[in-house]
Amino acid sequence: MIKGALFDLDGVIADTSVYHFQAWRDLVAKHFNATLPDDLEAKTKGVSRGDSLRVILDYLGETVDQVTFEALADEKNTAYIKLLDDLRPANILPGITDFIANLKAQNIKLALASASLNGPYILEKLALSDAFDAVANPAEVTSGKPAPDIFIAAAQALNLEPQDCIGVEDAIAGVTAINASGAFSVAVGDASDLSHAKLHFPSTAELNLATIQKAFEVAR
Ligand code: B16
Ligand code: MG
Prior knowledge:
Rossmann fold; binds magnesium ion; DNA polymerase, domain 1; binds 1,6-di-O-phosphono-beta-D-glucopyranose; globular; alpha/beta; 220 residues; single chain
């Protein structure tokens, strides 16, 4: 029986991932006079702010000192928050409101397992704060995704074992993290590289609790 659902945020609850990459692109254009290719986005998805910046600097072949690194990360976050200005409940991805309602109808507890330090702020903007029983704090875990820490912390916050939970993700690193935590990985999205997920839906609109429950029981 599924007892908990551990949710990623960016790309699962709302499509804020496009804003993340837009903010990185603007930063790189301004400070390095360079353009980031589309395929770099997948490498920054689900990955912490600092790790995303490392991926980008690696791509650019740039090294910066610690002070500059922090300043760049801060500047990106300020720009990202600005892009979130108009975020509202209508921006919740298709199917997510119903999926949350179906989980709650089955007494399945909900926790946020996002790498984003802006998670609580975004939930508030989407009027979803009350829907979640717990929010795992990414600032309090040792290692970010693809390490399992945030999913383990989210299960713990619900007083559950990861094995009794599903994790829902859109990112390669996130699915790896769920699998390593022991939770049952459910991937959403059209990325062809989510094949390591136990179950995959092409989009959030297709998330189906009955299908997940069946697959979960078979796997357990
Ligand atoms: P922040 P998720 C992740 O959120 C994003 O996918 C990733 O692009 C971002 O770098 C990371 O959060 C950190 O976000 O800069 O807001 O702390 O997909 O794990 O919900
Ligand atoms: Mg995500």
